[in-house]
Specification:
mainly beta; 4 helices; single chain; 2 domains; Jelly Rolls
Length: about 375
């Protein structure tokens, strides 16, 4: 796809939000990630650029568009629908039928309590409530493969038969501007007490153990505040092609890193993911965690699959996310996914509370 018209994108999302999103994607090794809240088909790429057509931003902003939608009772602005959907639905009419008379639409309230963080650094939201509830705290050297049935996941009912599940829309209201959420599948997590070093990871994920692992990423979050030392941390993993003993570059832990934050500097994966080795585009599993010196505190090492980026440029304003007409074209949700959200960027250290709704339909 051709590059997105930059001035239209900046006018739509705002210059600050666009620049932050661009910075967060530099060095990303997986496929481009769709960007919500942008009409057309815009994707963020690994070089910090954007590709795909934008059908907004000629004259107005996202804020003006959202206000117009509310005042006109969600009047349709996009005049021409796509007639072919590359999903489990044969047409838009089929989607409407499945969601209404077919009873295959599922709506979920999202209400995540704000957490204090560090500007420009990722924060996990899986261990805060209230909706979905907080995920269970793991014991030392314990791993799990979360699913949609796991406490803390979005509790959707799995699709039946030959159906597939798809994201068709959402509404979010953040309390602080210029944050960005990533909706993703948390398919494995492991708790590492970093007083124990090294630590073998025996947990074998149950999803993405083949070529679907392309685009899967490793991230880390602090569970218990870390000590004042700054050891380096090396993660060994299996790549997308099944090659084992791939040791990622050692990364220096930030001294006294607070709970829930990405425990490395913003220069490491732009503050939210662990860089993989050259030519690797995904990861199937983690096999070992190793520090240059033992420290104190606990870290969650996590594996995820991105679904959609959700920019949050406006505070205290409902942002209507159209999953049909905008970039991701009914992005497919992997069967049994543990749907979670992380802040890949915080515009400020201020705790941000997110209230909203997501809509899934199978067909």
């Amino acid at each position: 796809m051709a590059s997105t018209h930059s001035s239209k994108l900046e006018r739509w999302l705002g210059k600050e939000q666009t620049e932050q999103l661009s910075q967060k994607m530099r060095g990303w090794y997986g496929p481009p990630i769709p960007v919500a809240n942008v009409p057309g088909g815009v994707f963020a790429t690994g070089d910090g650029d954007f590709c795909g057509p934008i059908r907004g931003g000629q004259f107005g902003t996202l804020y003006e568009y959202t206000c117009g939608k509310i005042k006109s009772a969600f009047r349709r602005w996009h005049k021409k629908q796509q007639t072919t959907l590359y999903t489990g639905f044969s047409s838009l009419s089929d989607l409407i039928s499945e969601a209404t008379t077919g009873g295959k639409r599922q709506d979920f309230i999202i209400a995540k309590a704000g957490v204090t963080g560090v500007a420009n650094i990722g924060n996990n939201l899986f261990d805060v409530g209230v909706q979905p509830v907080t995920m269970t705290t793991l014991s030392d050297a314990t791993g799990e493969n979360p699913t949609n049935a796991t406490q803390g996941a979005v509790p959707y009912t799995s699709e039946g038969g030959s159906d597939t599940m798809h994201f068709i829309g959402a509404t979010f209201v953040p309390t602080v501007a210029n944050n960005c959420l990533l909706m993703y599948d948390l398919y494995c997590r492991f708790l590492h007490n970093i007083a124990t070093d090294p630590q073998t990871v025996s947990t074998v994920p149950t999803r993405y153990q083949d070529t679907t692992s392309k685009g899967c990423f490793i991230t880390c979050f602090v569970q218990t505040a870390l000590g004042a030392t700054t050891p380096t941390y090396t993660i060994t993993y299996m790549d997308q092609d099944g090659n084992t003993a791939e040791a990622a570059a050692a990364q220096t832990i930030v001294a006294s890193a607070i709970a829930r934050r990405f425990p490395f500097a913003v220069t490491v994966g732009n503050g939210w993911f662990i860089p993989l080795n050259t030519a690797d585009t995904g990861v199937r599993k983690i096999t070992n965690l190793d520090l240059s010196a033992a420290s104190t505190g606990k870290i969650y090492a996590c594996l995820g699959k991105p679904y959609v980026l959700i920019p949050q440029p406006i505070a205290n304003q409902a942002l209507i996310i159209d999953g049909i007409n905008s970039a991701f074209n009914l992005v497919k949700i992997t069967a049994a996914s543990c749907i979670q959200f992380m802040e890949i960027n915080k515009g400020a250290t201020t705790a941000t509370t997110y209230n909203g709704q997501i809509i899934l339909v199978s067909g």
